[in-house]
Amino acid sequence: MAGDELLASIFKYASIAVAAALGLYATLLWCLTMPTFQSHVVYLHAFQMTWFKDLNVPETFGFLRNQVTPFSIETPDRVQLYAWHILPIELYRKHERSLNAEPTGFVSDITSRLAFQLLRDDPEARLIIHLHGAGGTVGSGYRVPNYRALSAGQPEKIHVLTFDYRGFGRSAGTPCESGLIRDALSVVDWAIKVAGIPPSRILIFGQSMGTAVSIAVSQHFALQSPPVVFAGTVLVAPFIDVATLVSTYRVAGTIPILSPLARFPRLFQYLQRYIKDTWRTKDRIAEYVRTNERNGEKYRLTIIHAEDDYDIPWHHTEMVFWYAVNATTPVGISYDALEQKKLDSKLNLGAAGSVMEWTTDHGVIREEILKTGLHDVVMGYPIVTMAVMRSLEAADPSFTH
Ligand SMILES: *[C@@H]1O[C@H](CO)[C@@H](O)[C@H](O)[C@H]1NC(C)=O
């Protein structure tokens, strides 16, 4: 009898626990339909991750004195974006004494600084506009080794410009899709107009959420009349769109939040209507490619993803690549036909992964799948350096001589 009673009470408490968990889950879903809560989940901008450090003291993030110039760029809707201009190491070495002699900290007139003048006055300088992922700031996590990898191929010439989107770090405002795109456009505008760097010497680099902003910006400029195309666009760990992302996303690579719902397509489709910022990279990349093909503009797209990326599964890159390749031909190509072509012509690099390059008369679309590199660690890898150098060389062969 005692055994039965025990069993019964275990049963009772277990069902209370299950009901409570379901209740919490339903509450979470309900919260997710609210725009403010949703934007916190999508952008994670409340998580600065550099709480105990001052971004205006870049030395505490491992930089040399005045290697980084903290300053701000204003958007047309008057948001002050917090930005870092990062000097490549060999250029720094050549000007070490003069750089050391300047005051440190936030700069209100960046044009008065030597670092800025070294960028503006060198006709061979290249500029990487860096669009970071969700959460954190310009100084968080693997972003710092990322900046080093970006300029490692030509450390006398390749500068990096990175910034926090509205609502992130020290930048004012609250994030939203149109706002983030406007932020990135303002930064590109600053690079062209204030720093005087033509688009042919600018490369757009984005990781994770930043890839969605990168392709939106590339597309925006390609659609201008006359069209504006950059030296290259490099995307690390992109995603197809937010709806597909949430159906596969796992917090810290382990806890699936919405993927259980993806098993109920109708419910999932219904909930999709509540997604405010959709970030449709698949459509934007297709339009970007189609526009350049139509205009006969030279373009270069590189998409990089690691197979052990648990935050955004690498299948997203295969799909994004397909959408891009499909847009190169008037009749298109099916996913399976492209997979077959990959089997025939992709470059197999063993433990280093594989590379598939799709070349047209005007453009190159390159997919690089790494075996390892996780979601962010890959940003500091030499594969990033190579992607940058390949793009810059293709845009101007004299750059690597
Ligand atoms: C592929 O391209 C064709 C032709 O442009 C288009 O009709 C089709 O919608 C594209 N497919 C995808 C999945 O984008």
Automatic annotation (TrEMBL):
Residue stretches in coiled coil: none
Protein's UniProt name: Abhydrolase domain-containing protein
Parts of the chain that traverse the membrane: 6-32
PANTHER family the record matches: ALPHA/BETA HYDROLASE DOMAIN-CONTAINING PROTEIN, PROTEIN ABHD13
InterPro entries: AB_hydrolase_1, AB_hydrolase_fold
Family matches, as Pfam families: Abhydrolase_6
SUPFAM superfamilies: alpha/beta-Hydrolases
Keyword terms, alphabetized: Hydrolase, Membrane, Transmembrane, Transmembrane helix
MF GO annotations: hydrolase activity
Keyword set includes Cell inner membrane: no
Superkingdom of the source species: Eukaryota
Residues in AB hydrolase-1 domain copies: 128-287
